[in-house]
């Protein structure tokens, strides 16, 4: 019975993290007798969030985040070490999810290498899939990542920007790194009935066309803009979208974080409160999961998102999405998904540059969504196939 230990998970309070964990667990547990255990900072919450995926959840004994300390069990350091040893004793593969933990943006890269390093010492196969990596500004952090990466049995990246960074800047061998796609391209959306229920609860009529905006309250921590500048820019964007496209706007807070600085629901409500004359609907009900949001995003005419996995939820449904980002991962995923025929500046804007440009909102509101949709229809099968190939590689590694 193969046992897979998934690392790289922080908390499914971020629906992007849920999308990663759920997509991998659901795909891997279709193989008979395969078990998946997810290491997380919020085990009880994530057990509920990942229900039906085939995954079990446990508090991560290798990384302990102080900001989530109240949401994980209290245990001594000795107990954590013993539990870590027991987990690895029964593990056939340690699999690190993608996302972008391995960058200097968040300062958590090296701690999340610990379980991989320990597994490598014990001779347990290790893999990283669907990664966005870098840039590293700390040489020690870069060296730690590179050392672990060189010992991996499998390393795949979710976009060409990271592929170039790993092979050119970090000098990993070309045959060490493979191009894939984000596992969330495989996420199953909620059913049509559930989607209709969610939209009706948010205030939309059945069959009504709409736009989506997925704001990030945490983006100002990683860019030079202030919270006030950010709120002003998003309010201007929401108002412009209504004036130009005359579609109601659904605000999709992709992160329901217990930490106020990263809770997108608060920002979404602020935007809506500033626009009493605009049909703005906030989709922030408790229990709204990644599959729910994917279904809603996938039904929109256009999605503009500051959360990369909200963009992926739309793109993987064939719906045009534009990312307002703060790191290379945004450019990489959007550029690879749309392909070279779509100018990168049309589908990805740096958040600081967007905030400083009064004309940017009007440009985004006037994008030719039908042309973008046609490009996606041609490119999406390739992205899905790349994500499926990652699952096949993991299974092959288990069977080797």
Low-pLDDT regions: none
Mean pLDDT: 95
| Helix segment tally | 16
SSE succession? EHEHEHEHEHEHEHEHEHEHEHEHHEHHH
The whole-angstrom Rg is 20 Å
Instruction: Give the percentage of residues in beta strands.
Output: 5-15%
Mind describing the biggest β-sheet?
7 strands, parallel
Mass-distribution shape? globular
Major sheet: order of its strands? 3-2-1-4-5-6-7
Q: Whole-Å distance between the termini?
A: 14 Å
Helical amount among residues, as a percent range?
40-55%
| Total beta-strand segments | 13
Structural class: alpha/beta
Entry summary:
With 400 residues, this protein is of the alpha/beta class.
Give a description of the structure.
The structure is a single chain. By secondary structure, the protein is of the alpha/beta class. Helix content is 45%, strand content 13%. A 7-stranded parallel β-sheet has the order 3-2-1-4-5-6-7, sandwiched between helices. It has a 6-stranded parallel β-sheet with strand order 10-9-8-11-12-13, sandwiched between helices. β11 (303-305), α11 (308-315) and β12 (321-325) form a beta-alpha-beta unit. The longest helix is centred in the C-terminal third of the chain and has 31 residues, at 369-399. The chain starts with a strand and ends with a helix. The mean pLDDT is 95.
Descriptive terms for the model:
400 residues, six-stranded parallel β-sheet, 13% strand, alpha/beta, 16 helices, seven-stranded parallel β-sheet
What's the SSE blueprint?
Elements: E1 3-7, H1 15-28, E2 35-40, H2 43-49, E3 55-59, H3 77-89, E4 93-96, H4 114-122, E5 126-131, H5 139-150, E6 154-157, H6 160-169, E7 178-179, H7 192-202, E8 211-214, H8 227-245, E9 249-251, H9 264-273, E10 280-282, H10 290-298, E11 303-305, H11 308-315, E12 321-325, H12 328-338, H13 344-347, E13 348-350, H14 351-356, H15 360-365, H16 369-399
Parallel strand pairs: 1-2, 1-4, 2-3, 4-5, 5-6, 6-7, 8-9, 8-11, 9-10, 11-12, 12-13
């Amino acid at each position: 019975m193969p046992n897979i230990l998934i690392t790289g998970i922080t908390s499914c309070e971020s629906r992007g993290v849920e999308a990663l964990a759920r997509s991998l667990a659901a795909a891997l547990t279709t193989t008979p007798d395969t078990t998946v255990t997810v290491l997380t900072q919020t085990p009880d919450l994530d057990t509920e969030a990942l229900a039906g995926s085939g995954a079990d959840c446990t508090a991560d004994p290798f990384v302990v985040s102080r900001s989530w300390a109240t949401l994980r069990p209290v245990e001594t350091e000795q107990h954590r070490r013993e539990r870590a040893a027991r987990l690895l004793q029964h593990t056939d593969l340690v699999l690190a999810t993608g996302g972008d933990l391995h960058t200097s943006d968040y300062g958590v890269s090296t701690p999340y290498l610990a379980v991989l390093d320990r597994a490598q010492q014990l001779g347990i196969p290790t893999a990283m899939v669907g990664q966005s990596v870098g840039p590293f500004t700390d040489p020690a952090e870069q060296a730690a990542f590179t050392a672990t990466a060189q010992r991996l049995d499998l390393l795949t990246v979710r976009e060409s920007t990271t592929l170039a960074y790993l092979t050119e800047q970090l000098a990993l061998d070309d045959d060490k790194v493979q191009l894939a796609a984000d596992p969330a391209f495989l996420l199953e959306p909620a059913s049509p009935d559930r989607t209709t229920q969610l939209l009706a609860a948010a205030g939309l009529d059945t069959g009504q066309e709409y736009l989506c905006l997925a704001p990030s309250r945490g983006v100002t921590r990683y860019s030079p803009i202030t919270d006030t500048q950010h709120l002003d820019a998003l309010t201007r964007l929401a108002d412009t979208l209504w004036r130009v496209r005359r579609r109601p706007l659904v605000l999709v807070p992709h992160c329901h974080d217990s930490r106020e600085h990263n809770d997108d629901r608060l920002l979404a409500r602020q935007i809506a409160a500033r626009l009493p004359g605009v049909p703005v609907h906030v989709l922030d009900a408790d229990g709204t999961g990644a599959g729910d949001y994917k279904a809603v995003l996938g039904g929109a005419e256009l999605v503009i998102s500051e959360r990369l996995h909200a963009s992926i939820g739309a793109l993987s449904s064939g719906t045009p999405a534009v990312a307002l980002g703060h790191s290379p991962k945004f450019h990489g995923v959007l550029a690879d998904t749309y392909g070279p025929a779509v100018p990168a500046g049309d589908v990805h804007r740096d958040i600081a540059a967007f905030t400083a440009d009064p004309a940017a909102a009007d440009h985004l509101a006037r994008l030719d969504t039908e042309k973008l949709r046609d490009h996606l229809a041609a490119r999406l099968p390739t992205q899905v196939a790349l994500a499926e190939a990652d699952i096949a590689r993991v299974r092959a590694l288990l069977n080797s």
